[in-house]
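[retry 2/3] Nucleolar complex-associated protein 3 N-terminal domain-containing protein: previous attempt timed out, resubmitting with same input.
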Amino acid sequence: MSCGVEVDPLVQITVQKLAVASSLEIFMDILPSYSIRKWSEAEEKQQMKKETKILHEYEQALLRHYQKFLKQLDKFCKCNMKKKLNKIKLTPKLVESCQMLGVKCVTRLLAEQYHFNFRQDLLETVVPLMSYKDETIRNICCESVETVFKSDKLGEASFDIVKTICKFVKDNPTKSHPRMLETFLQLKIKEVEKTDQMAKTKRDILAKKQKIRMMSRKERKTFKRLKKLDDDLAELEAEEKKENVLKFHTKIMSQIFAVYFRVLKREKLGNQPLNKCKILPVVLRGLSKFAHFINIEFFDDLLNSLLNLVLKADLNVTESLNCVKTAFVILSGDGQALNIDPYGFYRFVYNVLPKIADEKRIDYTNILHGEFHSA
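[retry 2/3] Nucleolar complex-associated protein 3 N-terminal domain-containing protein: success.
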């Protein structure tokens, strides 16, 4: 009915849309809360129990059909670019409705099923739409990413998202919308690993593992009887989980800072001068929020870049104050150990005070305490 030659295109598209919406609800109900591991060739050939074989065949069928469904959703999301869907020419209203359905489906899957397989396939569809020209679609995609950032306890999914966004920004600096980078501000990262701390944690975990392995059977029984072995194993598991969280959070911040520094270091992004670049304000806001995670060896170079920005880049007052705030955050943390004179920033703040008095649209006092907002 959805692909007959003489069927009206409106009927064809309506049937396809209903099929997509129904399929989404089915997948939302049957997708497991874990990622299905791909079996090796040796595992595929080995003998297995009947129940295991049935489960394996079911999982493989689920993966095949789910991947096909994601490809269909990708077509729906991109139908506006081709003005057709599955060889059916679309009117503007049909384009809009099909695309919106596809966007709502992929963003729901990303927000609620990001732990399952083919997460990268979802990201390849969603991330470009985070800079889409339509504000509604753009916000839906960005909000789904923010949902993942808030609910992802381990950080692995967040890292995949950040890595994909950073790659998009690197490849398309002038097409990247500020709303895309604003999602980084929703990351709940409180700690990252330093190099020496990372090595020490790994050594401690390996030492505890080795100690447990080297125990004799008698010692293990004694430990179990005293409930110490279980406590040690639980502690070890907690330490490993914490290490994994710190590892992913460290990787996330590394990706984000790479984008931020790339923007600050360039005089132009594409054909745009830096002070006209639309992503610069959100980059400065991000730097001011995450400045305490920056490694100390980058402080001197970053502070020079920030000072050059406020003195030479002809920024507006808000952007300039965010530069100053970032510098002060750096100098109030690990930067206290460095012999850096903040005179240039102090001088700029005093010079900009008359401009702050003239502009009443923004409550600038909040910039030095957190996110600024419209008054």
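[retry 2/3] Nucleolar complex-associated protein 3 N-terminal domain-containing protein: Confidence is low (pLDDT under 50) at residues 371-375.
[retry 2/3] clearing retry counter.
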